[in-house]
Specification:
binds 3,4-dihydroxyphenylalanine; 12 helices; two-stranded antiparallel ribbon; BirA Bifunctional Protein, domain 2; 9 strands
Length: about 350
């Protein structure tokens, strides 16, 4: 039996020498090592061996199988390598062919402007606060000195969810939330960007949802001149070094005194043009000294501390900065409009 096995080995290795194709290799694999192959055939005859012979012959069978398999694997690898090389040679790549251009997005102009505003105030030492868009009547109105029957509530048509819960109409409620969370500590210096909601019909200058940035400073000896200096600094950074501002007396229930702020028209430099309707000035925000009642509701003693606040619409600032005539451009996602801001 041993001789038979040795002969088998010789025969297999000899035929492997001449193999030139994977298919032929596969055939030999079946012929010698397969279920009905020559080696299996020999194994079947092992039943007739004596107990002493069996392990000896078993060992020989294993050796023969290992020898044949080793050569077969070697051949197999060789064929595979050959196949790969052939493919690599055939499939040459034209590296000079220009790649396909993938369209890339850009930062939305509203986000860009909001970020710019945030950066300016962060540079002045402010931090960024946030508050909920679904707000209580208390924070949106009452704590801002607007009791239930106050006529100034009509200034902001409100989406009510229940009698006490609403979509915030302004970012001003974050003023009181921040003061309460500060537990009487000073100074407070925050801005709060966020979405606000009003029951307005959409048109070129109105939207039921838009973005505001609120500012609040509370501390000892905070004065109107601090407010004015801060806003002038902001205007210069946002609209250009030559910008000037002016404060016009106004009314907001949560500030006293209150003012509206105009900046010199960036389009005409203040000479008067279509954009500023010939006045040379553009209104950019509302502001004032925090009303003593609001300080009280925030947990501060109005005899000890004072503060100023301001609030601006991001859409409006973006319209003025880029000379856009309709805020609906910001929401309709026409890429021809949006892509203009890609590299600005
Ligand atoms: N919340 C006001 C509005 O939406 C804007 C505003 C005005 C905010 C004066 C302020 C402020 O903080 O002091 O019309």
């Amino acid at each position: 039996m041993k001789e038979r096995l040795e002969a088998l080995r010789e025969e297999a290795l000899a035929s492997l020498q001449h193999v030139e194709h994977v298919n032929a290799l596969q055939e030999l694999r079946v012929k010698y090592l397969g279920k009905k192959g020559a080696l299996t055939e020999v194994l079947r005859g092992m039943g007739s061996l004596s107990a002493e012979e069996r392990p000896v012959i078993g060992q020989v069978v294993n050796d023969v199988r290992a020898a044949i398999e080793a050569v077969m694997d070697e051949k197999q690898n060789f064929f595979q390598q050959e196949e790969t090389n052939k493919r690599l040679n055939e499939e040459t790549i034209d590296v000079s062919l220009p790649g396909r251009c993938l369209p890339t997005g850009s930062i939305h102009p509203l986000n860009k402007v909001a970020q710019e505003i945030e950066d300016i105030f962060i540079g002045l030492g402010y931090s960024v606060a946030e508050g909920p868009e679904v707000e209580t009547d208390y924070y949106n109105f009452e704590a801002l000195n607007l009791p239930k029957d106050h006529p100034a509530r009509d200034m902001q048509d409100t989406f009510y969810i229940t009698e006490e819960i609403l979509m915030r109409t302004q970012t001003s409620p974050v003023q009181v939330r921040t003061m309460q969370a500060s537990h009487g500590e000073t100074p407070i210096r925050i801005i709060c960007p966020g979405k606000v909601y009003r029951r307005d019909d959409d048109d070129a200058t109105h939207s039921f949802q838009f973005n505001q940035i609120e500012g609040l400073v509370v501390g000892k000896n905070i004065r109107m001149s601090d407010l004015k200096g801060t806003l002038l600094q902001f205007a210069k950074q946002m609209f250009g070094e030559n910008s000037q501002i002016r404060l016009r007396p106004s009314f907001f229930p949560f500030t006293e005194p209150s003012a509206e702020v105009d900046v010199t028209c960036a389009q005409c430099g203040g000479c008067g043009c279509r954009m500023c309707k010939g006045t040379g000035w553009l209104e950019i925000l509302g502001c004032g000294m925090v009303h003593p009642r609001v300080l009280e509701m925030g947990g501060y003693d109005p005899n000890e501390v004072t503060g100023f606040a301001f609030g601006m619409g991001v859409e409006r600032i973006a319209l003025l900065k880029y000379g856009i005539d309709d805020i609906r451009h910001f929401y309709t996602n026409d890429t021809r409009f949006l892509s203009q801001f890609a590299r600005m």
